[in-house]
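so my prof wants the structure for this chain in the C-alpha coordinates format not the other one, which i didnt know existed until like an hour ago. anyway here's the sequence
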Amino acid sequence: MEFLHTGVDLIVGFFGLFFLTRILGKTQITQITTFDFISALVLGELVGNAVFDDDIGILKILFAISVWGSLIYLLEIITQKWKNTRAFLEGRPTIIIHQGRIIRESLKASKLDLNQLQHLVRARGAFSLSEVAFAVLETDGTVNILKKPKFEMPTRNDFSMTQEKAILPFSMILDGEVLLDNVQEAGFSEEWLQEELKKQNIKTYKEVLYAEWLEGEGLYLQKMN
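here's what i got, hopefully its the right format
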Protein backbone atom coordinates (compact mmCIF):
# COMPACT_ATOMS: atom_id res chain seq x y z
CA MET A 1 0.00 0.00 0.00
CA GLU A 2 2.90 2.34 0.80
CA PHE A 3 4.43 1.73 -2.65
CA LEU A 4 1.08 2.42 -4.30
CA HIS A 5 0.74 5.71 -2.40
CA THR A 6 4.25 6.80 -3.46
CA GLY A 7 3.59 5.78 -7.05
CA VAL A 8 0.36 7.77 -7.25
CA ASP A 9 2.05 10.84 -5.73
CA LEU A 10 4.88 10.57 -8.26
CA ILE A 11 2.47 10.33 -11.18
CA VAL A 12 0.44 13.32 -9.95
CA GLY A 13 3.60 15.35 -9.32
CA PHE A 14 5.00 14.42 -12.74
CA PHE A 15 1.93 15.52 -14.68
CA GLY A 16 1.48 18.58 -12.47
CA LEU A 17 5.01 19.79 -13.26
CA PHE A 18 4.58 18.85 -16.92
CA PHE A 19 1.46 20.98 -17.37
CA LEU A 20 3.03 23.81 -15.37
CA THR A 21 6.06 23.99 -17.71
CA ARG A 22 3.72 23.90 -20.71
CA ILE A 23 1.75 26.84 -19.32
CA LEU A 24 4.82 28.89 -18.44
CA GLY A 25 6.34 28.40 -21.90
CA LYS A 26 9.60 27.18 -23.40
CA THR A 27 11.58 30.23 -22.35
CA GLN A 28 11.55 28.96 -18.78
CA ILE A 29 13.94 26.24 -19.95
CA THR A 30 15.92 27.84 -22.78
CA GLN A 31 16.39 31.27 -21.19
CA ILE A 32 16.57 30.40 -17.51
CA THR A 33 17.50 33.30 -15.25
CA THR A 34 18.83 33.13 -11.69
CA PHE A 35 15.32 33.51 -10.33
CA ASP A 36 13.99 30.82 -12.67
CA PHE A 37 16.73 28.45 -11.48
CA ILE A 38 15.88 29.05 -7.82
CA SER A 39 12.17 28.65 -8.59
CA ALA A 40 12.80 25.30 -10.26
CA LEU A 41 14.78 24.09 -7.23
CA VAL A 42 12.08 25.19 -4.79
CA LEU A 43 9.31 23.64 -6.88
CA GLY A 44 11.21 20.36 -7.19
CA GLU A 45 11.86 20.35 -3.44
CA LEU A 46 8.17 20.94 -2.70
CA VAL A 47 7.08 18.04 -4.89
CA GLY A 48 9.93 15.78 -3.70
CA ASN A 49 9.09 16.27 -0.02
CA ALA A 50 5.39 15.81 -0.72
CA VAL A 51 5.93 12.51 -2.53
CA PHE A 52 7.80 10.88 0.35
CA ASP A 53 5.76 12.37 3.18
CA ASP A 54 2.82 10.13 4.07
CA ASP A 55 0.99 13.00 5.75
CA ILE A 56 0.84 15.01 2.51
CA GLY A 57 -1.83 13.96 0.04
CA ILE A 58 -2.38 14.50 -3.65
CA LEU A 59 -4.39 17.69 -3.12
CA LYS A 60 -1.55 19.30 -1.21
CA ILE A 61 0.89 18.40 -3.97
CA LEU A 62 -1.35 20.00 -6.57
CA PHE A 63 -1.92 23.00 -4.29
CA ALA A 64 1.83 23.57 -3.87
CA ILE A 65 2.41 23.34 -7.64
CA SER A 66 -0.54 25.63 -8.39
CA VAL A 67 0.44 28.36 -5.91
CA TRP A 68 4.12 28.43 -6.89
CA GLY A 69 3.28 28.21 -10.58
CA SER A 70 0.76 31.04 -10.25
CA LEU A 71 3.39 33.27 -8.65
CA ILE A 72 5.84 32.61 -11.49
CA TYR A 73 3.10 33.15 -14.09
CA LEU A 74 2.08 36.41 -12.41
CA LEU A 75 5.68 37.58 -12.56
CA GLU A 76 5.80 36.81 -16.30
CA ILE A 77 2.61 38.83 -16.89
CA ILE A 78 4.02 41.80 -14.95
CA THR A 79 7.27 41.84 -16.97
CA GLN A 80 5.37 41.54 -20.25
CA LYS A 81 2.91 44.36 -19.54
CA TRP A 82 5.17 46.81 -17.70
CA LYS A 83 8.54 47.23 -19.40
CA ASN A 84 9.97 49.28 -16.52
CA THR A 85 9.79 46.26 -14.20
CA ARG A 86 11.96 44.02 -16.43
CA ALA A 87 15.30 45.41 -15.33
CA PHE A 88 14.43 44.91 -11.65
CA LEU A 89 12.72 41.51 -11.92
CA GLU A 90 14.73 39.92 -14.74
CA GLY A 91 17.91 41.96 -14.81
CA ARG A 92 19.36 43.54 -17.94
CA PRO A 93 22.13 42.60 -20.37
CA THR A 94 25.53 44.13 -19.61
CA ILE A 95 28.14 45.10 -22.19
CA ILE A 96 31.46 43.76 -20.88
CA ILE A 97 33.56 44.31 -24.03
CA HIS A 98 33.03 47.46 -26.08
CA GLN A 99 34.93 48.07 -29.33
CA GLY A 100 37.50 45.47 -28.29
CA ARG A 101 38.05 47.03 -24.84
CA ILE A 102 37.20 45.07 -21.69
CA ILE A 103 35.01 47.12 -19.34
CA ARG A 104 36.42 46.33 -15.89
CA GLU A 105 33.63 48.15 -14.08
CA SER A 106 31.05 45.94 -15.80
CA LEU A 107 33.01 42.80 -14.91
CA LYS A 108 33.15 43.80 -11.25
CA ALA A 109 29.46 44.71 -11.15
CA SER A 110 28.59 41.34 -12.71
CA LYS A 111 30.88 39.42 -10.28
CA LEU A 112 32.82 38.10 -13.26
CA ASP A 113 36.59 37.61 -13.45
CA LEU A 114 38.77 37.38 -16.55
CA ASN A 115 39.12 33.60 -16.36
CA GLN A 116 35.35 33.22 -16.38
CA LEU A 117 35.10 35.72 -19.21
CA GLN A 118 37.62 33.75 -21.27
CA HIS A 119 35.68 30.55 -20.64
CA LEU A 120 32.38 32.12 -21.73
CA VAL A 121 33.95 33.69 -24.81
CA ARG A 122 35.61 30.41 -25.84
CA ALA A 123 32.20 28.76 -25.64
CA ARG A 124 31.14 31.18 -28.41
CA GLY A 125 34.03 30.22 -30.67
CA ALA A 126 36.50 33.00 -29.84
CA PHE A 127 39.67 31.60 -28.30
CA SER A 128 41.25 35.01 -27.81
CA LEU A 129 39.71 38.11 -26.29
CA SER A 130 41.48 40.09 -29.00
CA GLU A 131 39.04 38.60 -31.53
CA VAL A 132 36.01 40.15 -29.81
CA ALA A 133 34.61 43.55 -30.74
CA PHE A 134 31.57 43.38 -28.44
CA ALA A 135 30.53 40.98 -25.70
CA VAL A 136 27.22 41.11 -23.86
CA LEU A 137 26.50 39.28 -20.60
CA GLU A 138 22.89 38.16 -20.86
CA THR A 139 20.44 37.87 -17.98
CA ASP A 140 20.72 34.06 -18.02
CA GLY A 141 24.49 34.22 -17.39
CA THR A 142 25.59 33.43 -20.96
CA VAL A 143 27.75 35.69 -23.10
CA ASN A 144 27.00 36.62 -26.72
CA ILE A 145 29.78 38.09 -28.80
CA LEU A 146 30.27 40.06 -32.00
CA LYS A 147 33.70 39.30 -33.46
CA LYS A 148 35.91 41.86 -35.12
CA PRO A 149 35.30 41.74 -38.89
CA LYS A 150 38.71 40.25 -39.71
CA PHE A 151 37.97 37.26 -37.47
CA GLU A 152 34.57 36.47 -38.93
CA MET A 153 34.25 33.26 -40.92
CA PRO A 154 35.32 33.27 -43.65
CA THR A 155 37.88 35.87 -42.68
CA ARG A 156 38.34 38.99 -44.78
CA ASN A 157 42.08 38.40 -44.70
CA ASP A 158 41.55 35.20 -46.71
CA PHE A 159 40.13 37.22 -49.59
CA SER A 160 42.24 40.36 -49.12
CA MET A 161 39.05 42.32 -48.52
CA THR A 162 38.90 45.77 -46.95
CA GLN A 163 38.39 45.54 -43.20
CA GLU A 164 35.40 47.33 -41.80
CA LYS A 165 34.56 48.65 -38.37
CA ALA A 166 32.42 46.39 -36.16
CA ILE A 167 28.99 47.93 -35.65
CA LEU A 168 26.58 47.26 -32.79
CA PRO A 169 22.83 47.61 -33.54
CA PHE A 170 20.67 49.79 -31.26
CA SER A 171 17.23 48.61 -30.16
CA MET A 172 14.99 51.67 -30.35
CA ILE A 173 11.46 50.37 -29.83
CA LEU A 174 10.37 47.33 -27.80
CA ASP A 175 6.74 46.30 -27.36
CA GLY A 176 5.45 49.65 -28.57
CA GLU A 177 7.65 51.73 -26.25
CA VAL A 178 10.56 53.90 -27.34
CA LEU A 179 13.99 53.44 -25.71
CA LEU A 180 15.15 57.06 -25.65
CA ASP A 181 18.51 56.21 -24.07
CA ASN A 182 19.37 53.97 -27.02
CA VAL A 183 18.13 56.54 -29.54
CA GLN A 184 20.36 59.22 -28.03
CA GLU A 185 23.32 56.86 -27.68
CA ALA A 186 23.05 56.14 -31.41
CA GLY A 187 23.35 59.89 -31.99
CA PHE A 188 19.74 60.67 -32.87
CA SER A 189 16.74 62.42 -31.34
CA GLU A 190 13.18 61.34 -30.76
CA GLU A 191 12.10 63.72 -33.53
CA TRP A 192 14.37 61.88 -35.98
CA LEU A 193 12.83 58.55 -34.97
CA GLN A 194 9.32 59.89 -35.42
CA GLU A 195 10.20 61.14 -38.90
CA GLU A 196 11.62 57.72 -39.80
CA LEU A 197 8.40 56.07 -38.64
CA LYS A 198 6.31 58.48 -40.70
CA LYS A 199 8.25 57.43 -43.81
CA GLN A 200 6.88 53.93 -43.22
CA ASN A 201 3.32 55.19 -42.53
CA ILE A 202 3.55 54.58 -38.80
CA LYS A 203 1.93 57.20 -36.59
CA THR A 204 2.62 55.96 -33.04
CA TYR A 205 5.12 53.75 -31.24
CA LYS A 206 2.26 51.44 -30.25
CA GLU A 207 2.15 50.18 -33.82
CA VAL A 208 5.72 48.85 -33.60
CA LEU A 209 6.67 45.55 -32.01
CA TYR A 210 10.41 45.93 -32.51
CA ALA A 211 12.70 48.46 -34.16
CA GLU A 212 16.48 48.63 -34.32
CA TRP A 213 18.98 50.86 -36.08
CA LEU A 214 22.22 49.65 -37.64
CA GLU A 215 24.75 51.96 -39.23
CA GLY A 216 24.84 51.41 -42.97
CA GLU A 217 21.54 49.53 -42.94
CA GLY A 218 19.18 52.08 -41.45
CA LEU A 219 16.08 51.45 -39.38
CA TYR A 220 14.64 47.93 -39.32
CA LEU A 221 11.25 47.40 -37.73
CA GLN A 222 8.41 44.95 -37.33
CA LYS A 223 4.85 46.09 -36.80
CA MET A 224 2.42 44.74 -34.24
CA ASN A 225 0.28 41.90 -35.56
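also thought this was worth mentioning. Residues 51 and 112 are 39 Å apart (CA to CA).
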